[in-house]
Design the sequence.
């Protein structure tokens, strides 16, 4: 069994399928990296260098941006990725900035029946 999972050739991270110890060589598809630090099962390992501000790609989709430089083999998690997933505060702010009405159905005015 592979120690890590990559879904898309676009991915620059792999998901650990088991705990990865520092110093272990992990090969996923055509990439081999030396694990730089312990990585828990379910967490991500960088398959290549990801520079500050660049997208972190998992399962073919961006999951956030590197908040600092990430070296190949490094643990990729909240300490070095700024994620926008699940950030309702950002969606609301972006909606206001773009003029999109993000009010809930309960907050929207209803039309009065025509007489």
Sequence:
């Amino acid at each position: 069994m592979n120690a890590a999972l990559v879904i898309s050739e676009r991915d620059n991270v792999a998901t650990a399928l088991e705990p990865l110890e520092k110093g272990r060589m992990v090969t996923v598809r055509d990439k081999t990296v030396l694990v730089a630090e312990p990585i828990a099962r379910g967490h991500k390992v960088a398959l290549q260098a990801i520079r500050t501000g660049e997208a972190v790609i998992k399962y073919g989709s961006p999951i956030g941006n590197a908040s600092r430089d990430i070296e190949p083999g490094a643990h990729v998690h909240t300490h070095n990725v700024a994620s926008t997933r699940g950030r309702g505060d950002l969606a609301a702010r972006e909606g206001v900035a773009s003029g999109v009405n993000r009010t809930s159905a309960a907050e929207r005015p209803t039309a009065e029946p025509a007489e």
About this structure: The mean pLDDT is 84. DSSP finds one helix and nine strands in the chain. The radius of gyration is 20 Å. The domain at 4-96 is CATH 2.30.130.110 (Archaeosine Trna-guanine Transglycosylase; Chain: A, domain 4).
